[in-house]
Design brief:
Shape: elongated
Order of helices and strands: EHEHEHEHEHHHHHH
Number of helices: 10
Strand order of the largest sheet: 2-1-3-4-5
Mean pLDDT: 87
Number of strands: 5
Largest sheet: 5 strands, parallel
């Protein structure tokens, strides 16, 4: 079993439950951090002292307070930690239920598993830790498996991200069309762009372009 694990979680009640679960798995060294910055420093120190962590379990959302932070979210912490220690195993333990955001954690940050906080989340977390240690393929908690099997999750492409970013800058269809043509991005006709925007509004359940940009900004797409 993993020997040294770091838990990044700002709620004491959840942190206590996670630590208890880790103790039940006979993990010898368990550390906890309420702030992403503190978690990053612990990871850095572990490498410096040649006693690196085997596993990071992190929430995504951390409530801001009076303290200034370099890293304000679990995503930022994991990204920085992976750059520092690429082989660090990572589990996201969060209440987040936006399917695209969850998928992006795997594709962009290459997390090892995602466990959704809920009624049976601690047993799920223990099972997930054991499977990761044994190099099993299961990456999602049971509650999320069906959601991420939805083919619509794979409709969002780099083309859409580029389109959303241009929209967020206030560009018109004509502006975007010209920009895409110069960059060699296809399709780049105004009609095709408009159809894609309408599809994105349906996908994200947005009322208009402004609402679409607001939603996708919340998801971290733009």
């Amino acid at each position: 079993m993993f020997k040294k694990v770091l838990v990044a979680e700002d709620l004491d009640s959840i942190s206590i439950a996670i630590v208890k679960a880790l103790e039940e798995l006979a993990i010898l060294e368990i550390h906890h951090a309420k702030y992403c910055d503190d978690a990053f420093l612990k990871i850095k120190k572990g490498l410096h002292t040649n006693t690196p962590y085997d596993l990071l379990i992190s929430d995504l959302s951390f409530k801001p307070d009076h303290r200034e932070s370099r890293f304000s979210s679990g995503e930022e912490l994991i990204e920085a930690a992976k750059k520092l220690q690429p082989d660090l195993k990572t589990i996201v333990f969060s209440i987040e239920d936006k399917s695209f955001r969850i998928k992006s954690l795997f594709t962009n940050l290459e997390i090892n598993a995602y466990v959704s906080k809920g009624r049976n989340s601690i047993p799920e977390l223990k099972k997930t830790i054991q499977r990761i240690y044994n190099n099993k393929e299961e990456k999602l908690s049971t509650e999320l498996c069906l959601a991420l099997r939805d083919n619509s999750l794979f409709e969002i492409e780099s083309y859409d991200i580029a389109l959303l970013k241009s929209l967020s800058k206030g560009f018109t269809l004509e502006n975007i069309s010209s920009e895409f043509k110069e960059s060699g991005i296809v399709p780049n006709g105004s009609s095709s762009l408009e159809k894609r925007i309408n599809k994105l509004k349906i996908y994200f359940k947005a009322n208009n372009n402004v609402h679409l940009i607001a939603i996708t900004k919340d998801l971290g797409l733009v």
